[in-house]
Design a protein that fits this description.
With about 450 residues, this protein is of the alpha+beta class. The protein has a single domain, classed as Up-down Bundle (Outer membrane efflux proteins (OEP)). The chain has 9 helices and 8 strands. The strands form 3 sheets. A 4-stranded antiparallel sheet has the order 2-3-5-8, with no helix packed on it. A two-stranded parallel ribbon has the order 1-4. It has a two-stranded antiparallel ribbon with strand order 6-7. A hairpin with a 2-residue loop joins strand 6 and strand 7. Helix 3 runs antiparallel to helix 4 and helix 4 packs antiparallel against helix 9. The chain starts with a helix and ends in a 7-residue tail after the last helix. The N terminus is likely disordered.
Length: about 450
């Protein structure tokens, strides 16, 4: 019975028509296109790459800073009274320098800033994984809806075909006065209703196809067909504990929140580090030329006062901000509270995932039960419709009975395809809730 169950469920989802080579896409191909072309996922990749650059920016603070400068200035004396310092008379000054600065200690602020950037990079990578996981879930669920919508079109088309035959039979019987006019009118009403349902089914298929093309970032192609690349099968349901343990390990949003919380605590430590001293090692080379406009005089003789000085300088500087009005302290408290807030969001996410796993497991169980019953009902409805056709031809049944059999057959097909879709959606949701690493 299980083998028959699986075979029939898969057979109902086979393509209605022949698909030409190069004009069909499987679920795996849809996923590949979406992962390569979806703009939302591409934006997440850029965000993760930008976070990686922030790590390299923070890492640069561990290295010394080297800078150079060249200054040209003109000093022009306006007036001078009393003893004059010859260095401040009219002159041109040219100064070139190269300076090297290395921070030796900064209260662990540099290390904490680097660790914070690394935590945020890991968080953005997890966000990228989450965007990828959500895209896979959306493509899978939309693909299954396309399959269901196509099957609904097939069912509605078959229903219209059968009802047209019923109407022709009713018209023939009515002309021979074998059935009352009310049976003919009932057949025509049912046909009109079936044709209306066929239009709704085709519109729903087009809407689902548009959504799928949008997720793949492809132009709408009316000629493109979608086919399943694997047999549909009912899998053994895992336990809640196994699924939840898997989710705690694999769900990227949980990892992202955990990394964001650590980054907030690192920022809190950076704020406290502002109360500690900063020790710098500085060294530089200087080349200075002073060109005086007027010569100097000693007694009755003049002399050239131009100077050229080239020298090295090295030293250690210790600086300590002793009071900032409590700014660093309150900044520390702010980010400590931010870390706690993210911790609460992490707990909320864990609870939401647990609830989602339970709902998916319940949905899988319910859909599996409906699948078994719907296949038996479909067999019975098909057999009943065939029997009513034969009875009508033999003149021992009525058009009304045939229409009722047709209605039951349509309901059975719709129930079977709906149960299949609900099971597939529940399966995809369970995979999404547990992180996508396992196909439950």
């Amino acid at each position: 019975m299980r083998i028959l169950f699986i075979f029939l469920a898969f057979a109902l989802l086979l393509p209605a028509g022949r698909v030409h080579a190069g004009q069909a896409m499987t679920l795996a191909q849809c996923l590949q296109q979406g992962l390569e072309r979806n703009p939302t996922l591409q934006a997440s990749r850029f965000k993760a790459d930008a976070a990686n650059r922030d790590v390299k920016v923070a890492r640069a603070d561990f290295l010394p800073a080297l800078n150079s400068s060249y200054t040209v200035s003109r000093i022009a004396s306006i007036s001078a009274e009393g003893p004059a310092d010859v260095d401040y008379l009219d002159q041109d000054v040219h100064t070139a320098s190269v300076k090297l600065t290395q921070i030796l200690y900064a209260g662990s602020r540099i290390a904490n800033a680097h660790d914070k950037a690394k935590m945020l990079e890991l968080a953005m990578q997890a966000e990228l994984e989450l965007a990828r996981l959500e895209l896979i879930y959306n493509i899978e669920s939309t693909f299954y809806k396309v399959m269901k919508a196509r099957q609904d079109v097939v069912t509605a088309t078959e229903s219209v075909t059968r009802l047209r035959e019923s109407v022709r039979a009713a018209e023939a019987f009515f002309q021979k006065e074998l059935v009352p006019k009310v049976d003919l009118l009932s057949a025509r009403v049912d046909l009109a209703d079936a044709e209306s349902q066929l239009g709704v089914a085709r519109n729903n298929e087009n809407r689902q196809r548009v959504a799928l093309f949008a997720l793949m970032n492809l132009s709408m192609d009316p000629e493109m067909a979608f086919v399943e690349d694997e047999h549909f099968m009912v899998r053994l349901r895992p336990t809640f504990d196994d699924c939840y343990a898997q989710a705690l390990t694999d769900r990227p949003d949980l990892r992202s929140l955990a990394h964001q919380r650590e980054a907030a605590f690192k920022q809190s430590a950076i704020a406290l580090g502002k109360y500690l001293p900063v020790l710098r090692l500085e060294g530089g080379y200087y080349d200075q030329d002073r060109d005086y406009t007027n010569p100097g005089f000693s007694g009755f003789s003049s002399y050239d006062r131009d100077q050229a000085n080239r020298y090295w300088q090295a030293g250690v500087t210790l600086s300590w901000d002793l009071f900032d009005g409590g700014r660093a302290w309150y900044e520390n408290e702010k980010f400590d509270l931010e870390g706690r807030r993210i911790g609460s969001l992490l707990k909320e996410a864990e609870d939401t995932i647990a609830t989602g796993i339970r709902k998916a497991l319940y949905s899988m169980a319910e859909a599996e039960q409906r699948l078994g019953g719907s296949i038996e009902a479909l067999d019975a409805a098909s057999e009943n419709y065939a029997a009513e056709q034969n009875r009508l031809r033999a003149g021992v049944s009525t058009i009304t009975a045939l229409l009722d059999a047709q209605s039951r057959l349509v309901r059975a097909r719709v129930n079977q395809s709906s149960a299949t879709l609900d099971y597939q959606l529940a399966q995809s949701e369970l995979k999404f809730m547990t992180g996508g690493k396992k196909s439950w």
